[in-house]
Automatic annotation (TrEMBL):
Family recorded in the similarity comment: Belongs to the peptidase S16 family.
Keyword Disulfide bond: no
Phylogenetic placement of the source organism: Bacteria, Bacillati, Bacillota, Bacilli, Bacillales
Catalysed reactions, semicolon-separated: Hydrolysis of proteins in presence of ATP
Provenance organism: Peribacillus loiseleuriae
Stated name of the protein: endopeptidase La
InterPro entries assigned: Lon_proteolytic, Lon_Prtase, PDZ, PDZ_sf, Ribosomal_Su5_D2-typ_SF, Ribsml_uS5_D2-typ_fold_subgr
Active site: 234, 279
Coiled coil: none
Length: 341
């Protein structure tokens, strides 16, 4: 083979290899992320400092190309998910990312509410309207609204929750017109829409949006959470513990590095999350000594039981603790001896 043919063949192969990395399959790959200390992220005015740390755990997720797909097939603690199992029907990447970020906002609000109520501190909420998470193609809203829009009025009425919005629309019939006032890019806009029946639910009418409350907590003392780059609701429990610890006297960490995961409901219930085994790996690599895992009332395939399997497999010394509520985690920490004594 002449030198010229060899070089040409090499360049062609190189172009094909590089190009193939940008060809994505209809799958997502998830792998262990990191355990991140919360004290730099969460700040309560006048809050106490901790000797140890509370940490949220993350997983890394991205679209799979042929190389990451193959690697995930043969790697421990990397998982493949079909695109349809990650995104909702007709959901774009933009809508998915917005949904994840808004779920984080809801998680923060619940964490703040539970922490302040448990600490006996003042908290109320300012309601700003309805936040548009997604828009259904073929429905009236698809011509006017985008994910991220904030609906502040319907027919000149303001609502105190997304449920009130849904109940108001549900009283109408197909063909009725509603006037929507919404904000996009800090600019107020108005649109008129005729209600339409949903294809999957012909007895139900609407404008065709998925929505959530858009509200912000008003607290005394003030709390700030810098989580703009974190999506999803799984940090709820750890946010609650960090906020509560800064609000109250003493140090719940007792000098330990404490990781964990789980959603937080308004009543203090800890809910299950995805990727628990990958989060065990992430926490262990980050030096966590204790890990709180959702117990799910002891069901056979609970997050806690899955966490125990991973912990045994990687031979970690990290203590895995089952929790069903915020109070479970707090009680465990209150009984914990100080590490440095």
């Amino acid at each position: 083979m002449s030198r010229k043919i060899y070089i040409r063949s090499f360049l062609i192969a190189l172009v094909l290899i590089v190009g193939s990395t940008f060809y994505y399959l209809p799958y997502y790959v998830t792998k262990p992320g990191m355990a991140q200390e919360l004290e730099p992220i969460v700040s309560v005015e006048g809050g106490d400092k901790a000797e140890g740390s509370f940490m949220l755990t993350t997983i890394r997720m991205g679209k799979a190309n042929i190389y990451s797909y193959a690697m995930a097939k043969f790697s421990d603690y990397q998982e493949l998910f079909a695109e349809k199992d990650i995104r909702r029907d007709h959901e774009s990447d933009e809508e998915y990312n917005l949904r994840q970020l808004h779920m984080m906002d809801g998680s923060k609000n619940h964490a703040i509410q539970v922490a302040y109520e448990k600490a006996g501190k003042s908290i109320t909420f300012d309601y700003h309207g309805v936040y548009v998470l997604g828009v259904i193609k073929g429905m009236p809203a698809s011509k006017e609204l985008n994910p991220g829009d904030q609906i502040i009025k319907v027919d000149n009425l303001k609502f105190q929750s997304s449920k009130e919005f849904i109940d108001y629309v549900a009283e109408k019939k197909e063909g009725d017109e509603v006037t929507i006032v919404y904000i996009r890019n800090d600019k107020e806009r108005t649109a008129k829409m005729k209600l339409k029946a949903f294809d999957e639910q012909p007895n139900k009418v609407g404008i065709g949006i998925s929505l959530e409350d858009d509200k912000s907590p008003v607290t005394d003392p003030i709390v700030k959470i810098d989580s703009e780059q974190i999506g999803g609701p799984s940090a709820g429990l750890m946010f609650t513990l960090e906020i509560y610890n800064q609000l109250t006297k003493g140090d719940l960490t007792k000098g330990y590095r404490i990781a964990g995961t789980g959603t937080m409901s308004e009543d203090g219930t800890v809910g299950p999350i995805g990727g628990i085994q990958q989060k065990i790996v992430a926490a262990d690599k980050s030096g966590a000594e204790i890990f709180f895992a959702p117990n799910e009332r002891g069901i056979q395939d609970s997050n806690y039981r899955e966490a125990l399997i991973a912990a045994k497999d990687i031979k970690t010394d990290m203590k895995i603790v089952p929790v069903d509520t915020f109070d479970d985690a707090r009680s465990y920490l209150e009984r914990l001896p100080n590490k440095n004594k």
